[in-house]
Amino acid sequence: MKLPSEIVVDSFLPTFRALLASELDERGFTQQEIAERMSISQPAVSKYVAGEVEVEEVIARDSRVRDTAERVAEGFDDDSLNEYEALSEVIGLVRALEDRGPICEVHEREAPALRGTGCDLCVAGGDSRLLEENETLHDVRRAVRRFKNVPNVASHVPNVGTNVAQALSDAESTADVAAVPGRLYAMNGRVHVPANPEFGASKNVSAVVLAAARTEPSKRGALNLATSDELLSAAEDAGMRAVEFDPDRDERRDALAEAFADGVPDVAYHRGGFGVEPVAYVIAEDAPSAVRMVEKLLTDEY
Question: CATH fold of 146-301, please?
Fold first, then answer.
């Protein structure tokens, strides 16, 4: 009897470490710096870089593994990724590879009794809601990292700040929506992120996400920017549908439900009111998709 975790430790981990060590070495990191980043010894790094550690080719050939190693190395190199975020990336990768991926392939090779059984122990054997919560937090973290690096995005952050949010598939309240506590804010032309995402950390963006998901369950991600004529014009040029709603309604949920009556738009915005700053919400299937929409809007326009 061989556990899936043994495959991760014996096959995935050495392979991923070898790829990551090589990526960091190519970027000019010293072996001691690599050791500190990867929490292993310098002699171990030396073996990884020299190719003296056996790797599992089935795993090494997977594009997701190589892409993650490259993305983590790049994040370490430009300081856009810390160790916590890198760990989140790798855990997300392991989960993906355990879902009929190369980890399954190696497991079936090592445990022939699993062959042909359609084994789904790794994805079905745990708490499915806990898995979804972790995946949702991972999506928001990934989206936030990408958002803060969008060119010129800081100038579109409203004074009240920006938040990036994603709801669980069965979300009913703000407690089921992950976002950044304290919001993202602009300072000296850059976007600053005060904390890692948590559930229940947003009110306004969560309200938009929940309203969107009630109308179209597949729309579970959103973020907010400052409303501007330039942004709305860019949305129109990109073929995105923008709908205005009334921010002064006593019940924001009713105003959004009315705005979404003909389907969830790509952008839901208001022009502000007494004590209310004009804000536009970009809505998509998930948080990373919402950021990609913002990239299209700002990159194409500016």
Answer: L-fuculose-1-phosphate Aldolase (3.40.225)
DSSP assignment string, 53-122: S---HHHHT-HHHHHHHHHHHHHHHTT---HHHHHHHHHHHHHHHTTTSHHHHHHHHH-GGGTTTT--HH
270 — phi, psi (to 5°)? -140, 160
Tokens standing for 100? 């009929």
For the chain, the domains span 4-125, 146-301
Quote the CA–CA distance of 14 and 16 in Å, as a whole number.
Answer: 6
What b/e readout covers 219-247, taking b as 16+ CB neighbours within 10 angstroms? bbbbbbbbbeeebbebbeeeebebbebeb
Q: What is the pLDDT of residues 50-75, one digit of tens each?
A: 999 999 999 999 999 999 999 999 99
Structure tokens at 52: 């003296």
Give the separation between CA 82 and CA 261, rounded to whole angstroms.
42
Identify which has the larger pLDDT, 100 or 298. Answer: 298
Confidence of residue 76 (pLDDT cuts 50, 70, 90): very high
**Strands, E, within the chain: which ranges?**
164-167, 177-179, 185-187, 190-192, 198-199, 221-226, 242-244, 267-269, 279-284
End-to-end CA distance of the chain: give it in Å, rounded: 58
Given a cut of 60, whether residue 293 has pLDDT beyond it is yes
**Within its chain, how far is the Cα of 152 from the centroid?**
20
Overall pTM > 0.90:
no
- Residues 223-245 have pLDDT tens digits of 999 999 999 999 999 999 999 99
Contact 217, 260 (CB under 8 A): no
Give the Cα separation of 233 and 269 in Å (integer). 13
| List of long-range contacts for 60-64, beta carbons under 8 Å, 24+ apart | 60/15, 60/18, 60/19, 61/102, 62/97, 62/101, 62/102, 64/93, 64/96, 64/97, 64/101
